[in-house]
Design brief:
It is built from twelve helices and 22 strands. The chain is an alpha+beta fold. The strands form six sheets. A five-stranded antiparallel beta sheet has the order 5-4-3-7-6. The chain has a five-stranded parallel beta sheet with strand order 12-11-13-14-15, sandwiched between helices. It is globular, with a radius of gyration of 25 Å.
């Protein structure tokens, strides 16, 4: 955030998410912060959600060194020496852990993260933190084979990443496919020339119909979309493009009014560039948006049959029709869907949604849940996505 535009190009070149000019009003700042919050939620580390004596806790897969069960209590040993205790059986967590390549069951009472294995002995596995994990007699060969496969796979990934890094460094600055939509011949030629000078392959469209056809026939890395085009305007075309492709859509327009730019963000645009923007600033923004999108690798649209959760836009659709949910209803549905098939109590859902353990959190969830279920049942006739498990809580059924 700055009162001077002169550093904008440099900020995008180092990966800045956005560049705001002072003074900034709430109408410009709040939607941007909401968008960033959604992205941060998406990047939260994966792990197990557990109900312990301390309340609901989250155990990160990457930090989990090993798990052991003693007298109907599962102890999750973390790499930083923290231990989380849960009254349960190890079998309750095996399915979620063993589907991941880094976890292996060495003994009926132990699961170990192969990332933390230092050595394998005759009767035990030694972790990097000095723990001796027992190995069953009939599992000795399996443990050794699994560890060798894991190391070979890890080495292959490193070599592949090194090769990719080398290829990327040898590649020209762009080499991306850009769909440019503008009805002005001179403007199309001007912006296309800038993109081509940076190695991009540019597909041209004069209107929304041509853009939709090209999007369905060929893939691209980014869409540059004018607002004032014949037929449906750019905002309407943006919403239709978002349904058939998951790439950054940037508005490129001579329309400069702030309220119109906000309309572009509401339609699903990831950025808004005005046509008086200098070429180097224009390219810096396009390049950064494509790179950030490619680097994220995050699923922002999740389908459960006819139900769509758009995590980036925080919108819900059923059979392509908008399903209007409040922010709390959306978060409850999202968090519950992350644990599909699992029964969560209202208090556990409250902890996931609100990030704490408020005394009235469970009651608050129940109020929102009642309204949410009515909306889902009305919109999705024939399928009930949220089931009530009497005396326990709620379960999401895809």
């Amino acid at each position: 955030m700055s009162s001077s535009p002169e550093f904008a190009v440099e900020s995008y070149s180092v990966g800045a998410y956005y560049y705001l000019l002072k003074p900034v009003d709430a109408d410009s700042l709040c939607p941007l912060l909401d968008n960033m919050e959604s992205r941060l939620f998406l990047r939260k580390e994966q792990g197990l959600v557990l109900k312990s004596r301390k309340g609901v806790i989250r155990v990160s897969f990457t930090r989990l060194e090993f798990a052991e069960v003693i007298n109907k209590t599962v102890f999750f040993h973390m790499a930083d020496s923290e231990v989380c205790e849960v009254t349960a059986a190890l079998a309750d967590f095996e399915e979620k852990l063993l589907v991941r390549p880094e976890f292996f069951k060495t003994h009926r009472s132990y699961l170990v993260n192969l990332n933390y294995v230092q050595a394998i002995g005759a009767n035990c596995v030694v972790t990097k933190n000095g723990h001796d994990i027992p190995v069953s007699r009939h599992r000795r060969n399996e443990v050794q084979d699994a560890y060798m496969r894991f190391l070979n796979k890890a080495e292959s990934v490193i070599l592949r990443e090194e090769k990719q890094t080398k290829d990327d460094s040898e590649r020209s600055e762009g080499e991306w496919r850009i769909l440019l939509v503008d009805d002005d011949t001179a403007e199309r030629a001007y912006w296309a020339e800038i993109l081509q000078a940076h190695g991009c392959i540019v597909q041209l469209a004069e209107n929304g119909g041509e853009a939709l056809k090209l999007a369905e026939e060929e893939s691209c890395n980014c869409v540059l979309l004018d607002v004032m085009i014949p037929g449906e305007d750019g905002f309407a075309i943006c919403e239709r493009l978002r349904k058939i492709m998951d790439v950054p859509i940037i508005f490129l327009s001579c329309v400069t009014e702030p309220d119109r730019q906000l309309e572009g963000f509401a339609a699903g645009g990831i950025d808004y560039i005005t046509k008086d923007t200098p070429p180097e600033f224009f390219w810096a923004k396009v390049k950064t948006r494509i790179r950030l999108s490619a680097a994220g690798g995050i699923r922002t649209k999740i389908h459960y049959g006819p139900l769509l959760l758009d995590l980036e836009e925080r919108r819900t659709k059923m059979d392509g029709k908008e399903l209007f949910l409040t922010p709390d209803e959306f978060d409850i549905l999202w968090r519950l869907s992350e644990h599909a098939g699992c029964v969560l109590t209202p208090e556990e859902i409250a902890a996931l949604v609100y990030g704490s353990w408020p005394g009235a959190g469970g009651e608050k969830v129940q109020v929102h849940m009642s309204r949410l279920r009515r909306k889902l049942d009305k919109a999705g006739e024939g399928h009930r996505y949220i089931e009530t498990v009497w005396g326990q809580g709620y379960r999401f059924v895809p």
